[in-house]
Amino acid sequence: MATSETVDRSPALRRVESIPADATVRHVDQLEPSTLTWFLEAIEAGPTAALEAADLEDGDVIVFTACYRIDRS
Amino acid sequence: MTEYVIIGDGISGSSAAETLREEDPDSDITVITDEGESLYNRILIKEHAKGKLPEAPISIHDEDWYDERDIDLSLNTHVTTIDPDEKTVHVHQDENISYDKLLIATGGTPTQLPVPNSDAAGVHHFWTFQDARKIKESAESADDAVVVGAGLLGIDFAAVCGAQGVSGKYLMRGDRWWRYALSADGAEIMHDGMRDVGVEPVFDSGVDRFETDDNGQVTAAVDPNGERYECDFAGVAIGLTFNTEFLYETDLEMENGIVVDEYMETNLEDVYAAGDITRFYDVLLGEQAQNGSWGSAKEQGRVAAINMAADERSEEFQWVSSYSITHFDFPFLSFGHPTLGDDHAERRYSDTEWRRVAFKDGKIVGGVLIGDLSPQSTFKQLMREQREVADQADVLLEQSVDIDKLAPAQEQ
Ligand SMILES: Cc1cc2nc3c(=O)[nH]c(=O)nc-3n(C[C@H](O)[C@H](O)[C@H](O)COP(=O)(O)OP(=O)(O)OC[C@H]3O[C@@H](n4cnc5c(N)ncnc54)[C@H](O)[C@@H]3O)c2cc1C
Question: Are B144 and B167 contacting, i.e. CB atoms less than 8 angstroms apart?
Fold first, then answer.
């Protein structure tokens, strides 16, 4: 998988430039309300709540103004 | 054993099938769709057309998903009529399928422009995965394109142009994009976003006719002012026509969509509807409303299924929808019903930040956020609580919204 060097302020979100064919991909409008709030806060200011609060799996890709991969490592 | 039939395998129909299986494990469930593929992610097909996403992640359910849940899926099967007295669904292969409870989740089809050559090769509409594949193919070999339809779906065509390096002309009827929800200030940010990706908005325009070559391929759009815009393809997104033609011989109540209550029940016994096709009773708005968004369609399917299986009015649909545009450097989110209401407040914060909040009877009923989405959860919470806050719009328009600055709900 090609990932960019960009590491976001959030350790749980990594910006990716391309999406592999076997990834689970979700558009931001598919996120549950609490997950959407977590995601938007994480993009802006780093995660303010534990990632466990959001129903996202390691490796999931979220399509927003860029693509972000959930990185639990 | 109850026999459930669901017409439509979009997100509303599919979410209903999943919920029905959970709620009524011993039932018979049949899902009928006229598409050739099972549920896929309709809101990601634009990313495929942009060339950013391969096909595989767009599929949501393969056929095994239905087998594992003992759901009978009929692909490529078009429902032609229903008979609510006999409780049967008639499909184009001349077969009748009987039901105890029926869910209609048939969504809509993009409306064709009523102008000459609107069905020419290269004039695209955008609804199915197949549409996306064809748009991608056209865009990959195009230099110039024309986009028509100044709303949430039209802008996806503009984004495809931008991502595929096609020079686009976005022909709009009025003086701005999505004029029902955005003022000139808000729209200007979106216009700048379009220009940044190589798509030029053209105002007070539209399409009077398309021109074609000898092979019937579109070559240009001519607007009502006589301006001619050459194009290798055109994207048309002027609205949806709801898929209700198979219901015309019934007494189903329709009003540009199927009328349902907050339980997703129609006026016909044991017939429910869900998704884009409904005109539903919105308990937060206090009136009938429509919504064309993924989250709302999914939730309507779930709520319909709960009520179908319970055989009573068990759960009402109460939802604040979201619809995002993610094509530009700045985010955009529309929530609730931003075009409804009796009052609104808005403010521009910077070249990429703008906010509008729409009110009805003093309560928030929707809004649009551009650039800074941070207040979205607060605004949605206020909507759900039905707080009267219109007289405190200054608090809602502060860059950082502090809900504690609002007068406590009980004092209002
Ligand atoms: C390009 C595009 C981008 C979008 N972007 C977003 C977005 O960013 N965010 C968002 O929230 N929403 C977005 N939407 C809207 C969202 O996709 C829809 O609101 C949602 O998918 C509606 O789901 P549905 O199940 O109600 O209808 P549909 O998904 O339309 O499903 C209806 C199904 O019924 C089938 N059908 C119709 N008539 C018959 C018949 N007579 N017999 C058998 N089958 C029939 C149809 O073929 C279809 O498969 C977008 C839509 C499109 C097209």
Answer: yes
